[in-house]
Amino acid sequence: MDNQRNEQSLLQRIKELEEHIQGLEKDLIHDSLTGLKTRAFFEEEAHMYFESISNSCSEKRKKWFGFNRISFLFFDVDHFKKINDTYGHAIGDIVLKKVAATINIVLRQGDTASRWGGEEIAVSLLGASEEDAHTIALRILESVQSLRFEEAPDLTVTISCGIATAKDGVTFEELIKWADDALYSAKDSGRNTVIQYSELVESERKK
């Protein structure tokens, strides 16, 4: 009887330990505030996907992954500092949570959103062309703008977005920079808008 009780007690402790480890693993890959993936996890996963469609990757591996394009969306909550200053950081946290949840709802299965830093959110879209990414980004902007906050009924939130799509010969680091450059162009253009990196390139050509 004692042996049976000891065995049950050991099994229970093992189960509790496994649950604790699973909780730690979740904490390591999820941002504690928004529930989105962490930047570190996003970069590792996105880099793996990016490499899977690169010229150096075997055709067999590309076929196994099932896609040959990837686009990045970089979002930033407009005037977030003003939101914090006007309504307080508690409301700012609620804004980030709701924006993150809204982005996740719009995304397709297989897409990944992460908290890149502060109020900036990065998204990877597997298999998405620049046009696909633009359509998804606009849908997210519209959904965020329609958000309402019981804690601040007069508050309307908008976000800006930059898009970059992988092309032959482009490195992962360059693609991330393209998305970031496009985001800051969107903010410089008045915010609450979407800018594709290709638009920046075309604009430079016309100068």
Q: Which keywords apply here?
A:
2 domains; 8 helices; alpha/beta; 6-stranded mixed sheet; Alpha-Beta Plaits; single chain; 207 residues; 6 strands; 57% helix
Compose a concise summary of this entry.
This protein is α/β, with parallel strands linked by helices and 207 residues long. It has helices at 2-29, 39-52, 59-65, 80-87, 89-106, 130-145, 172-188, 197-206; strands at residues 37-38, 70-77, 112-117, 120-126, 159-165, 194-196. 29% of the residues are buried.
3D structure, described in words:
The chain is an alpha/beta fold and 207 residues long. It folds into 2 domains: 1-30; 33-206, Alpha-Beta Plaits (2-Layer Sandwich). It is 57% helix and 16% strand. The chain is built from 8 helices and 6 strands. It has helices at 2-29, 39-52, 59-65, 80-87, 89-106, 130-145, 172-188, 197-206; strands at 37-38, 70-77, 112-117, 120-126, 159-165, 194-196. It has a 6-stranded mixed beta sheet with strand order 1-3-4-2-5-6, sandwiched between helices. Strand 5, helix 7 and strand 6 (194-196) form a beta-alpha-beta unit. Helix 4 packs across helix 5 (89-106) and helix 5 (89-106) crosses helix 6 (130-145). The radius of gyration is 21 Å and the shape is globular.
